[in-house]
Recover the amino acids of this structure.
């Protein structure tokens, strides 16, 4: 089922899929964009680095906030990065802690996550890195302890996948995670 969100009086439909060595983005069932995997990997790496640099908040802005036990984003989430022969996995816990792995990197973060989606249908996620093993992630980068990232999550109606975005808008979504456990 494609992701849906109310958009200017109609429905905005977006579907992201992998096809052979390409990433395909379909929206409004009329338009389709096919991106070669190598170009997507370069774009994703640049976007991730840009996100880390441009959408950072100050370290004192994050106060760990426990989530209700029935929050739909509690659990383990994974994205496969086949072109990099790598994956990222995030474990979001109800106590406001995130444990993650990406390549050789293992880290812990404190986070705040909105209890409910905004009027636009996105959860706001503010994450502060508190511990790291200092090893590189899938793209070869290392993130400093104390780094704060602000992102937005669009949860699929099935609650088994979500889009990770840098703003509350589908055009700023750059990764699709699947529930792992």
């Amino acid at each position: 089922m494609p992701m849906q969100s109310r958009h200017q009086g109609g429905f905005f439909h977006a579907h992201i899929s992998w096809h052979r060595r390409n990433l395909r983005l379909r929206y409004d069932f009329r338009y389709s964009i096919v991106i070669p995997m190598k170009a997507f990997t370069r774009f994703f790496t640049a976007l991730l680095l840009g996100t880390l640099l441009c959408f950072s908040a100050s370290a004192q802005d994050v106060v760990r906030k426990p989530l209700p036990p029935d929050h739909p984003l509690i659990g383990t989430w994974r994205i496969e990065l086949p072109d990099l022969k790598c994956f990222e996995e995030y474990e979001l816990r109800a106590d406001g802690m995130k444990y993650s792995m990406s390549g050789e990197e293992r880290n812990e973060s404190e986070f705040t996550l909105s209890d409910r989606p905004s009027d636009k249908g996105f959860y706001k996620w503010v994450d502060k890195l508190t511990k790291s093993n200092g090893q590189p992630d899938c793209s070869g980068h290392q993130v400093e302890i104390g780094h704060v990232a602000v992102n937005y999550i669009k949860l699929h109606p099935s609650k088994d996948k979500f889009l990770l975005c840098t703003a509350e808008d589908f055009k700023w979504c750059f990764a699709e995670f699947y529930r792992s456990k």
